[in-house]
């Protein structure tokens, strides 16, 4: 399971800047106003040897009253869910009593703390570090998040503090066997209804005491003679205990189950417009390189006109994952489930498809002959040969010259060409260019 690292600190010290550097988040959110309240952000950091979930907790002021008390409570929950806390402080403000109060809070949690002294660009680093040495945090590191300086050292300090990893990698078969499937989606789209439907009503309730179980719940499933393992979906749990706080935390669980899965089923509600959250989830699947099936639920009894509207909206909004099969289902009535599981199988098969170097090189030659990349200062980039670079997602390594100048449009052309040629459905494809022979 992906471990969780919480970024904690007063407002305006640079947490969200660090978050964006760590997650390379596309929707960068950096506010210039002190004390702005905002939602927590979640992302996955893959820059180090081991990926982990990063939570930007928003901000503690160290004096928790009124609204701040609410934020403080959220931060505490985030800390409770995390393995390591990175306390970010502002070198330019120096050591403030609020920082001290937050540190005390972290120490009470018993979690390992890494102290990141941010904004050391253009100031005396040694003086800044010396001041914060008074905190007595063994791992105290200089950082300039806005310039991505000190990030590698920060990762080097954080990674050894993470708990050991017992997960099979995406390529490995599960001990239980079968394809690992995560069913994700916003609250109320019908995840538990689907899981119950798939499992059969009698074995539904998997109890869990709120907040104590750290391992993802895995449930074996057999259907039409094929084996699957359903991973830690909110739906596997009893609904009754789902309260606000826990519901919010399902973001972490969702990221973790996506990472542990081989195929992600993203569930949408046909009766609701496609939301920002749906798109964010799809974006995470894409970043993760996972195979994806989109299950559009509550299709039962939907008038023809609304079905048409829904299909159109999906096509438009989800075109960035246009390779993912959309299956229209009713979890309540059990319709479309055969097709859903077939799409899961296909996605998994595509994600693990064996492709030989000669097949790939032949396809590359044809693609190149059909349409060549635009000239760069009078010279055409040359693409010489290709070989496989891994599964989950299928990775194609292409060797050539001037490959750095190949535009996104051409990359997409190649991707589509390979996708058609090898009939890859339901999985992203990664293309890597290598310069030279
Ligand atoms: P947060 O409230 O803790 O999430 O802080 P933000 O990430 O929103 O940053 C607050 C302000 O500090 C923004 O104006 C950032 O541009 C600035 N900032 C963040 N990191 C650095 C840094 O490394 N150096 C400098 N000089 N400014 C920074
Ligand atoms: P979850 O929060 O994603 O696990 O969603 P639930 O499975 O709890 O379902 C939320 C609500 O949607 C419940 O009232 C379900 O009865 C309803 N629901 C789930 N699946 C369907 C479906 O296929 N059709 C219709 N009409 N309602 C559904």
Automatic annotation (TrEMBL):
PROSITE patterns: G_ENGA. Pfam families: KH_dom-like, MMR_HSR1. One of its GO terms (molecular function) is GTP binding. The keyword Nucleotide-binding applies. The keyword GTP-binding applies. GTPase that plays an essential role in the late steps of ribosome biogenesis. HAMAP family: GTPase_Der. Belongs to the TRAFAC class TrmE-Era-EngA-EngB-Septin-like GTPase superfamily. EngA (Der) GTPase family. This is GTPase Der.
């Amino acid at each position: 399971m992906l471990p969780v690292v919480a970024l904690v600190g007063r407002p305006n010290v640079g947490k969200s800047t660090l978050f964006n550097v760590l997650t390379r988040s596309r929707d960068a959110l950096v506010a210039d106003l002190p004390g702005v309240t905002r939602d927590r952000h979640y992302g996955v950091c893959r820059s180090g040897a081991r990926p982990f979930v990063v939570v930007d907790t928003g901000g503690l002021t160290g004096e928790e009253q009124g609204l701040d008390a609410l934020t403080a409570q959220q931060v505490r929950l985030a800390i409770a869910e995390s393995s390591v806390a990175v306390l970010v402080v502002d070198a330019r403000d120096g050591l403030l009593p609020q920082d001290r109060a937050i540190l005390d809070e972290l120490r009470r949690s018993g979690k390992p703390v890494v102290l990141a002294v941010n904004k050391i660009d253009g100031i005396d680093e040694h003086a800044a570090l010396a001041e914060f040495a008074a905190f007595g945090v063994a791992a105290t590191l200089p950082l300039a998040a806005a310039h991505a300086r000190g990030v590698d050292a920060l990762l080097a300090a954080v990674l050894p503090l993470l708990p050991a990893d017992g997960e099979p990698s995406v390529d490995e078969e599960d001990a239980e066997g079968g394809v690992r499937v995560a069913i994700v989606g916003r609250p109320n789209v019908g995840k538990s209804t689907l899981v119950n439907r798939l499992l059969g009503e009698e074995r539904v309730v998997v109890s869990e005491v709120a907040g104590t179980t750290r391992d993802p719940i895995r449930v074996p499933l057999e259907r039409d003679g094929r084996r699957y393992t359903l991973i830690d979906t909110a739906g596997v749990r009893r609904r009754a205990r789902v309260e606000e706080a826990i519901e919010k935390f399902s973001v972490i669980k969702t990221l973790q189950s996506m990472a542990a899965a081989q195929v992600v089923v993203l569930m949408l509600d046909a009766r609701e417009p496609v939301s920002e959250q749906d798109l964010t989830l799809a974006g995470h699947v894409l970043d993760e390189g996972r195979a994806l099936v989109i299950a559009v639920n509550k299709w039962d009894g939907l008038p023809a006109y609304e079905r048409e509207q829904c299909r159109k909206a999906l096509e438009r909004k989800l075109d960035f994952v246009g390779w993912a099969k959309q299956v229209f289902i009713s979890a309540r009535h059990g319709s479309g489930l055969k097709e859903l599981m077939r799409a899961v199988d296909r996605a998994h098969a595509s994600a693990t498809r064996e492709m030989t170097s000669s097949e790939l090189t032949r396809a590359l030659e044809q693609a190149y002959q059909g349409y060549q990349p635009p000239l760069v200062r009078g010279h055409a980039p040359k693409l010489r040969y290709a070989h496989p670079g891994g599964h989950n997602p299928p990775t194609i390594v292409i060797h050539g010259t001037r490959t750095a100048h190949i535009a996104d449009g051409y990359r997409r052309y190649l991707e589509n060409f390979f996708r058609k040629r090898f009939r890859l459905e339901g999985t992203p494809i990664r293309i890597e260019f290598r310069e030279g022979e």
